[in-house]
Specification:
This protein is α+β, with helices and mostly antiparallel strands. The chain is built from five helices and 17 strands.
Amino acid sequence: QPGDIITRIEGVSIGRDGTMGDYCDVLRSHSADDQMAIEVLRYATAEVLTGELNGDYLFTSFSFAEELGDDGSGASPDAYDEYVTVTDDTGTITVDVPAAWAEVDGSSLDLGDGLATPSITAAPSIEGYLNTWETPGMEFLASTSLAEFTADEMLDMVAPADCESLGRTDYDDGFFAGKYENFVSCGGTATEYVVVATISADGTYGTVVAVQVATVADYEALDQIMRTFNVTTGA
């Protein structure tokens, strides 16, 4: 529809560098009648839709804000008004986070296998995010070595000890599939902790995204993070 913005096509995030280069590259590699998976942001209705060119109709995609939010009463008055794209130090992974989460660490992690795993941590205060439950923030990591594990195994690796799990639910956005786990009562606070563990559609890499939801506005941030997290090269 007029006003729709294509945010992903064939699993590739569009416009990361402010140009149509990625979009054109995907189109050049397909014929005019090929089916191509797309994700669309429809500003008129504040919806994110997924479907296919030359294929399935667009439909409203999964929303953590709707699934996990308390009352579904609409946007929080404290909703983030700006998002920025951040990239890890290796240029391998990207994700959109609130501009207010101005502290970003893109250094790689060693998960115990001796390999450097691409990683991004972002928060208003990374120290507060890592050491308290009062500060919102996120971590995103991806590598080919993680693809050797199931989603359940990845979730087991990162489960926090001082939260109550509400169980695990299947997750599939068309590009990444796995499970997410929602934790509540973290450290005796009202903060929720959401972890999503997935394998890419082609099975080449695994990802873990963890978001600390300290306010209602952070549900919207969680949705934006899950819409935009992407591996841009072989990790």
